[in-house]
Every structure is written in C-alpha cells, then in structure tokens.
Write a structure and sequence with these properties.
The chain is mainly alpha-helical. The chain is 82% helix and 0% strand. The protein contains 5 helices and no strands. Helix 1 packs parallel to helix 4 and helix 4 packs antiparallel against helix 5. The longest helix has 25 residues. The protein is globular. The two termini are 17 Å apart.
Length: 119
C-alpha cells in the first residue's frame, strides 16, 4: 500500500512541477536562475524521488525516510500556493486545484504510513 501511495504522490508532485514550469514558479518564489536554475534544481530532486521508490519498495528505513520527506513534499504545494503565495492568476485552474488537493491527501497518507513503517 505504501508503494502505491508513494507512486501516486510522486506522480502528483511531478504534475505540479510541470505546471510550475509553465507558471514560471521561479518568479513567484523569487528563485535565481530563471528556467535553467529551476530545471537544474529538479535534477537531484527527481533522482532522489526515483531512488526513494526503490527503497520504499524494499520496505527499508531509508525508503520510509523518503516516504516521510516526499509525503511532506505533497503537502507543500497546498501551503505555498493556497496559503502563503496565493495569487489570483496562477495555480487556480480546475486541474491545478485538483492536483494540489489530491497531493495534500496523498502526501498526508504517505507521511503517516511511512512514519508507521519507520517505527
């Protein structure tokens, strides 16, 4: 169950990051490097995301740690785009909201299941 939730959460995170590139999230968060910096920032994140899937499938402590980290990662888009940096013209389409709200659910579930598996 934790593996499937990890895959769902990871898929939603990747979809959100695709939209983040479209919405020029580096401008919203005032990140340096524009699109180049934004893409380079995602290289290690994606490597860790995929590596975490291998570890979570093995039910290892490292995998559960990745589950906790990326579970929190599933909650962050909601905090950033619906609470802290809320803008009327970005991240408010129906599909964007569906991704963000499903991501908070999958992220919370992953966080809880991973924490339980870690103990």
């Amino acid at each position: 169950m934790v593996t499937l939730l990890y895959i769902l959460n990871a898929t939603l995170l990747v979809l959100h990051e695709l939209e983040s590139a479209y919405e020029k999230e580096w401008e919203i968060l005032k990140l340096p490097g524009r699109i180049t910096g934004f893409l380079l920032l995602h290289v290690p994140l994606l490597i860790l995301l995929f590596y975490g899937l291998l570890e979570i499938e093995n039910n290892s402590k490292v995998g559960m740690t990745f589950g906790i980290i990326f579970g929190v990662g599933g909650i962050i888009p909601f905090i950033v785009h619906k609470l802290v940096f809320k803008t009327a013209d970005r991240f408010n389409s129906l599909i964007s909201s569906v991704i963000i709200y499903f991501n908070i659910v999958s992220g919370t579930g992953l966080l809880l299941l991973s924490a339980k598996g870690f103990a």
